[in-house]
Design brief:
The complex is a heterodimer of chains A (449) and B (1007). Helix content of chain A is 71%, strand content 0%. Chain A has 449 residues and is mainly alpha-helical. Chain A has a single domain, classed as Formate dehydrogenase/DMSO reductase domain (Formate dehydrogenase/DMSO reductase fold, Up-down Bundle). The longest helix of chain A is centred in the middle third of the chain and has 34 residues. Chain B has 1007 residues and is an alpha/beta fold. Chain B has four domains: 224 residues, Rossmann fold (3-Layer(aba) Sandwich); 190 residues, Dimethylsulfoxide Reductase, domain 2 (3-Layer(aba) Sandwich), CATH 3.40.228; 139 residues, Barwin-like endoglucanases, CATH 2.40.40.20; 272 residues, Alpha-Beta Plaits (2-Layer Sandwich), CATH 3.30.70.20. A seven-stranded mixed beta sheet of chain B has the order 5-4-16-15-14-6-7, with helices on both faces. The longest helix of chain B is centred in the N-terminal third of the chain and has 19 residues. The radius of gyration of chain B is 29 Å and the shape is globular. Classes of the chains: A mainly alpha (449), B alpha/beta (1007). At the A-B interface, α5 and α10 of A face α1, β30, α32 and β34 of B.
Chain lengths: 449, 1007
């Protein structure tokens, strides 16, 4: 940003003003959006209630496909959750400065996406009221979970990831909350920011400790970027289902997660930037950088797809081969070709530079990629389970309204938290953007002398 | 932490009963309490009626099964059964190994008799039609009085029954003598034409005894002897014995539709409907040319030669659609075999030419010198079903001649071709009295219903085969306010003031005993303790079974009628049609039989062995015919002719002849019960003409043509197979054997000795990263011989019954949510000469290296020390990961909290817990039986031996294709079979699951 030679440089004041302006009294549009999100949450909640009352039959799952829509959603949302930590922690360690304007948004997205993803394993349980049986704690039932089960690893991976990303997110927020506190007018906001800013004064010593802690968290969070989705991929890779049992899954899932996460950041950043007039803070340069990240991860994902097919052929394993014939040409061919278009072909357009800075195009493309990544998980889960070893037990899936309702409800849930967040907390990192701006006073001073 | 542990420890002590209540006492109280609860739960009936004390109270020990020998009355085979009762309820039916007819197995239909017994739609009390025409409850006394009143009036009387025998037949005969009742028997499943042909050809009316265990070659024109024909359990057992013997054994099946027997045949020759007679004559001609028939008189030989003079092999081949080479091959096989067997039956042999076809078969048997070897005339079954008597009766009814009509064990309103107009004729009868168990079409139209008790609640006997005298004893008290048919008849006679009816016996139980006393003296028996000890012994064993007589052979007496063979093709009635003609091919299936079993959820949910259809009626037609008619799989197909109309979903297959539409009989009820009525579409018998031939006493099933069009609606045909072929995956393995040398190698026992080394070697080649599991005491295993598995599905129903498996209904099956722990995978593989149908029972393989176990996050499934993949239901949270990871797809998830209607719940096995919604369930080799068997062995102070434990599927298998036992014991049957050179394990070489189930490759003898 500093590198852009604009007619007028951003100033500290402008950053603070434009960001904190977001926290002002909500407009009608914000309420409408919140209402829509909450309604969707209610739709999802009623669907889940119905499912608990009638049994898993309410969803479209069946005998061979006993993981379906919910696990697809789970993997999808965990994937979305990925790029937050990547952008904030990994890029921090790599000193990639384009992250400054978008990382807060990405982190918020991470936390809320994990909160969404975390619901799905519960929703998908046959007896969700016993979910705590998966937790290892000494209990009077003298029972202990099975540490060999990848599902248990999931419990740890996701809960660790949630804890770390939530803490990291909150720590990053503290100086900005203090800035908001200093401008807060209503009693409620004074209390909210007063408490959550943890007595931040911006003193030198505070900054010194703060930076050390922040770096530490970043270092701590970085391996999680790799681990969480690797562990999620093991849900599949550790099984012996043809189409799942593949060593390529962890890197493939991580790349896919970053791919979808960055796309989701773009999907969220574009309307945010428009509504709150942050064009000077989140600039086209940032979108260009994110587009390149998409191009890169799309390439990895495409490579992984090809590798899967190659390995299926090379293995000379008839079950694997059949599975990879079934994906493009079987009952679920629409999902396969949809995925290929969305994830492999559509992102190729970004090689043309003007499109990387064309905001409208990027918005559409990011949604296409999100759809594509949902279809990727659909492909992995549905097609593999539909055609396993025993032909007489092959089967299909009947999408039910409950599946659809809960899936939509998840978007509502995620949207609800995002909507609340942008109104109550600074969605762009004020202090960090200021880090890369020229120091106003010193510059003036320099000019003076 | 330490505190925690102390607490847990002390809790354990409490559980062990260190003070106060001892564990034994607690269990006693709990047991008694649960019994009381179980009884109290049957709110629909007075509780004192539910607990029978047939043999005194000392037999009622809570938690311990009591077994009663009895006889299966589902079809007329007369298989012996053992009824397992718990706390006064019958919970399971098993084959009686002592009965010479089935010798232990029990088919799906027989297994499901329990559900007819506990059917919530059973008639619960006597009903009479009131002035408004509604059926209203009435007391038994009033009901008897009503009948007695009607008997005072003038008018003829008749009783229509199904096949009856023994004391009941005698009692009905007394109805005739004392009250002038005409006795008319009707049963659509009876091979009456065969019995008639025997009279002409062999000299005595009846169905000969067929010995499939002696026939090296069987030429079969359509008889589905694995599913419905005469005595499927017994025939299947004999056939299996022959296959196990190692002798080359060929079944050549000629039929327009691939039936279960056709699918198991070594050679299936699809024929054009009605062409079988020509084929039979061609075979006869060829055999005569080969010089067979030296044993026959020259007169007979000459007449047969005359009969076959005009037969031209090429013309026959063209007419039948069976190639000349195949016909010659069949003749060669028959000629070379020491003993062979030629039979005809089922729909293919049920044309207006049926008698001629049966006569041809009889002569072929004579030519091949099978009579006395595989065709025994000594102990013939004598079916009494007679269409001419039915037709005469109906004609009389139409004239208003009949004042009283009794119906017993028969549903003429449904099972007679509607063109015979029973429904119209019955309206003229003064009083129609039905002794039905269910409100079927005929009972629902009757004036008075005296609900009969089922054979599980009644005394009775079956003397269907001379020498096999089976007893029926009540295994439990009546559930509803019902009475045994015999009791009701005796009461009616008493009310009608008939003197000395039934020898003045108080009730049917006494009548039966008296009848057996007569039998005892007639047979000239001389038991040690006199009749009483004979009686007790018979009740205990399930009857009296005469040792096989080695006496005189019956001499064949060919009558002149036997040469009245019509050589031309049978005629088909196509009245009322206009183009798009198809041949209607109604057939009996084990699922719905003649309609009597349509209200049993187990059978409705049982996948049809060939089509795998559940909860439906269907119309099989081949793809060419389907294309002509413009229908695809699952479309509604409408068949219409002068006589009626049916609308049935189309099932497109390659295994029916061109222009044939095959529809199972027995569905499309308009009454009968909630499950039967769910299957819409109509009754295929409605398309049949009244009587196509005056000489045959059976309904000609293959006598109608109909106009076929694509009907309306989306019937959502549900077939539960995921694929019709195994796509080249070697799951169900088979060999198409041609030489006798190969056949010898295929012999089980022989091979076990020869190839023992090979098998042992294989055992040690297990690749494993982790330490191999130890099974110190037992390691349970199962062997499945695919060569003797016929796919009859008895095991599937046995499993449902034993393990309280939920029946889920059509919608859930459509969604792929059926619950069968044991299913039979059916695959059609290869084409032409390589065509093969596999039936592969697939249940939990109890893998040594189970994919399901490590993935469960809560240890709900684990490997126990006896090699089972045990499942702790109440530990399961329902992640379903185990099901995903199960390579055999044998785990079932409870998608719903399944409901079971009131009375059907009385059947539930108290040893097996009912599973709740949201959890996984699976086969554990009937772990409750394993526990029971181990307990028994422990009491005897020894280890479990072969035969101590039989899982339900193993017990029910009519062919003994399944064997269960301890793999740790090298001498157990299952261990020996594991070393057979046909032995293999499914998928093991791909994914190292180390299953405990050994499959033995199927083999079929081909040219």
């Amino acid at each position: 940003m500093a590198s852009t030679a604009k007619e007028k440089e951003l100033t500290y004041k402008e950053v603070s003003d434009s960001v904190l302006k977001m926290l002002e009294v909500p407009t009608g549009g914000w309420y409408v959006q919140l209402l829509i999100c909450v309604s969707l949450v209610l739709v999802g909640a009623s669907c889940w209630t119905y499912q608990i009352l009638t049994g898993m039959s309410a969803s479209g799952k069946s005998h061979p496909i006993s993981w379906g829509c919910y696990i697809t959603n789970f993997v999808f949302w965990v994937g979305i959750a990925h790029s937050g930590t990547l952008i904030s922690a990994v890029l921090l360690l790599f000193r990639a400065r384009f992250r400054m304007s978008i990382y807060r948004l990405a982190e918020a997205m991470t936390v809320f996406a994990v909160m969404t993803a975390g619901l799905f394993p519960l929703i998908h349980l046959g007896r969700p009221w016993f979910f705590y049986w998966l937790m290892p704690y000494p209990n009077q039932r003298t029972l202990w979970p099975n540490f060999r089960s990848p599902l248990l690893w999931d419990v740890f991976a996701v809960s660790t990831y949630f804890t770390i990303s939530a803490v990291f997110f909150f720590v990053g927020l503290v100086p900005d909350i203090a800035a908001a506190r200093d401008r807060a007018k209503t009693f409620f906001r004074k209390m909210l920011y007063g408490i959550t800013s943890l007595g931040w004064t911006g003193s030198n010593s505070q900054w010194k400790h703060y930076m050390a802690a922040y770096l530490l968290f970043a270092a701590f969070a970085t391996p999680l970027v790799v681990s969480v989705h690797s562990v999620v991929s093991w849900d599949f890779a550790m099984s012996i289902v043809p189409g799942w049992h593949a060593t390529i899954f962890p890197p493939y899932f991580v790349a896919g997660a970053i791919f979808s996460g960055v796309a989701m950041v773009i999907t969220l950043a574009i309307p945010l930037r428009k509504v709150f007039k942050l064009e000077r803070i989140i600039t086209t340069e940032h979108f260009d950088a994110m587009s390149k990240l998409i191009m890169f991860t799309s390439g990895i994902v495409t490579y992984a797809y090809i590798t899967e097919f190659y390995v299926a052929w090379f293995s000379n394993n008839s079950f694997e081969r059949f599975q990879f014939w079934f994906r493009p040409f079987g009952d679920f061919w629409v999902a396969f070709w949809g995925m290929t278009f969305c994830n492999c072909i559509a992102p190729l357009s970004l090689w043309y530079k003007p499109l990387r800075t064309n905001i409208a195009f990027l918005f559409v493309l990011s949604i296409i990629i999100n759809i594509g990544m949902w279809l990727e998980r659909f492909n992995i889960i549905f097609t593999s389970l539909a055609r396993e070893y025993i032909p007489s037990a092959w089967g299909g899936y009947n999408f039910s309204w409950i599946d659809v309702g809960i899936t939509i409800g998840a978007f509502g849930w995620f949207g609800m938290w995002m909507t609340l967040f942008v109104k109550f907390f600074p969605a762009v990192a004020i202090s960090e953007i200021k880090e890369i701006l020229p120091y106003p006073l010193r510059d003036k001073h320099a000019l003076h002398h | 932490m330490s505190n925690e542990l102390v607490k847990i420890g002390s809790k354990r002590e409490l559980q062990n009963g260190s003070n106060g209540l001892s564990r034994r006492q607690f269990l006693k109280i709990a047991g008694a309490g649960s019994t009381a609860l179980g009884v109290a739960a049957c709110t629909d009936s007075p509780s004192q009626k539910v607990l029978p004390y047939v043999k005194g109270e000392d037999q009622q020990i809570p938690g311990v099964s009591t077994w009663f020998s009895s006889t299966c009355m589902e079809c007329t085979a007369g298989c012996g059964i053992l009824v397992r009762t718990r706390e006064g309820r019958a919970v399971k039916l098993e084959g009686n190994p002592d009965n010479p007819i089935n010798r232990g197995g029990l088919c799906a239909l027989g297994q499901s008799a329990l559900q007819a017994h506990y059917d919530p739609d059973r008639i619960r009390e006597p009903l009479a039609r009131d002035s408004a025409g509604m059926l209203k409850p009435i007391s038994w006394e009033d009901a008897y009085a009503k009948v007695a009143e009607a008997l005072k009036a003038k008018g003829k009387r008749a009783i229509i029954t199904g096949e009856v025998s023994g004391a009941e037949e005698e009692l009905i005969a007394e109805l005739g003598t004392a009250m002038q009742f005409e006795h008319v028997v009707y049963d659509v499943s009876q091979p009456v034409a065969l019995a008639q042909a025997s009279e002409a050809a062999y000299g005595s009316y009846g169905i000969p005894e067929y010995r499939f265990d002696r026939a090296e070659v069987v030429l079969n024109f359509g008889a589905d002897f694995f599913e419905t024909w005469i005595s499927p359990c017994g025939y299947a057992r004999d056939w299996a014995a022959m296959r196990r013997s190692g002798k080359v054994h060929r079944v050549i099946h000629v039929e327009p539709r691939l039936s279960l027997t056709g699918a198991n045949a070594d050679l299936w020759l699809p024929s054009q409907p009605g062409s079988e007679i020509a084929l039979g004559l061609a075979v006869m001609k060829r055999l005569l040319e080969k010089g067979r028939g030296a044993n026959l008189s020259s007169d007979v030989r000459a007449k047969l030669a005359e009969l076959t003079r005009s037969v031209d092999l090429d013309k026959v081949s063209a007419e039948c659609g069976v190639s000349r080479e195949k016909i010659l091959l069949a003749v060669d096989y028959l000629d070379q075999a020491k003993t062979s067997l030629v039979i005809a039956g089922g729909t293919a042999a049920s044309t207006d030419n049926a008698l001629s076809l049966q006569l041809v078969c009889a002569f072929l048997n004579m030519l091949l010198e099978n009579v006395g070897e595989s065709v025994l005339l000594e102990n013939m079954r004598k079916p009494r079903s007679s269409l001419s008597k039915v037709a005469t009766l109906i004609a009389g009814m139409k004239k208003g001649e009949y004042g009283v009509l009794f119906l017993r064990g028969v549903n003429p309103a449904y099972a007679l071709p509607s063109s015979l107009e029973y429904n119209y004729a019955r309206k003229t009868v003064g009083l129609t009295v039905s002794f039905a168990t269910h409100l079927d079409e005929s009972a629902a139209a009757a004036d008075l219903i005296l609900p009969a008790s089922t054979s599980l609640e009644s005394w009775g006997d079956a003397r269907l085969v001379p020498g096999v005298y089976s007893l029926i004893q009540p295994a439990m008290g009546t559930i509803f306010n019902t009475r045994t048919f015999g009791d009701a008849v005796i009461e009616i006679a008493r009310k009608a003031e008939i003197k000395n009816f039934g020898g003045g016996k108080k009730d049917f139980a006494e009548y039966l005993k008296a009848s057996w006393e007569k039998l005892y003296s007639n047979l000239g028996l001389n038991a040690a303790g006199g009749f009483n000890s004979f009686w007790l012994r018979s009740v205990e064993r399930g009857g009296y079974f005469k040792e096989a007589a080695s006496g005189e052979r019956v001499k064949v007496k060919v009558s002149a009628d036997a040469f009245q063979i019509r050589t031309e093709a049978p005629a088909f009635d196509h009245k009322g049609t206009d183009g798009n003609l198809v041949t209607v091919y109604p057939y009996l299936s084990v699922k719905s039989f003649d309609g009597r079993s349509a209200n049993r959820p187990w059978l409705q949910e049982l996948p049809d062995p060939i089509t795998q259809v559940v909860w439906d009626s269907w119309a099989e037609l081949n793809s060419a015919t389907a294309k002509e008619l413009g229908v695809v799989q699952g479309d509604m197909l409408q068949l219409r002719n002068y006589y009626g109309e049916v609308n049935v979903p189309a099932y497109v297959t390659d295994y029916v002849a061109d222009g044939v539409v095959a529809i199972p009989i027995g569905q499309g009820h308009t009454a009968y019960g909630r499950y039967a009525k769910q299957i819409a579409g109509g009754n295929v018998l409605e398309l049949l003409p009244p009587r196509s031939s005056s000489e045959i006493e059976a309904v000609s099933l293959l006598s109608a043509r109909a106009q076929a069009t694509r009907g309306r609606g989306n019937p959502k045909l549900v077939n539960v197979d995921g694929s019709r072929t195994q796509t080249g995956r070697d799951l169900a393995m088979y060999d198409l054997v041609s030489t006798s040398a190969a056949a010898a190698a295929a012999s089980t026992e022989h091979a076990a000795e020869q190839h023992g080394e090979h098998g042992a070697e294989h055992e040690h080649k297990i690749k494993q990263m982790y330490e191999q599991r130890e099974h110190p005491l037992y390691k349970w295993g199962l062997a499945v011989d695919l060569a003797t598995c016929t796919g009859c599905s008895a095991c599937v129903v046995a499993c449902y019954a034993e393990n309280n498996i939920s029946v889920v209904g059509k919608k859930a099956c459509y969604e792929g949510r059926e619950m069968s722990w044991l299913r039979i995978d059916r695959y059609f593989d290869g084409g032409g000469e390589e065509f093969h149908v596999s039936f592969m029972p697939m249940m939990c393989q109890q893998c040594g290296n189970a994919p399901c176990e490590p993935v469960c996050p809560v240890y709900a499934t684990y490997h126990n020390e006896e090699g089972l993949n045990a499942m702790i239901y109440n530990r399961c949270v329902g992640t379903r990961y185990c099901s995903n990871n199960c390579s055999y797809k044998v785990r079932r998830f409870n998608w719903y909290e399944y409901d079971i209607p009131e009375t059907l719940a009385l059947q539930l096995n108290p040893d097996v817990v009912r599973r709740t919604g949201g959890i996984m369930e699976k086969c554990t080799f009937c772990v409750q039986r394993i526990t029971e068997g181990k307990d028994r062995a422990k009491d005897l102070g020894r280890k479990v031996q072969d035969g101590d434990i039989q899982p339900a599927c193993v017990q029910g298998c009519p062919t003994q294709a399944l064997a269960f036992g301890d793999l740790n014991d090298p001498n157990s049957k299952v261990s020996r079979l594991g070393k057979d050179n046909r032995a293999y394990k499914v998928l093991d070489h791909h994914i190292n699951t180390q299953p405990s189930i050994t499959y033995l490759r199927d083999f079929k003898y081909r040219a």
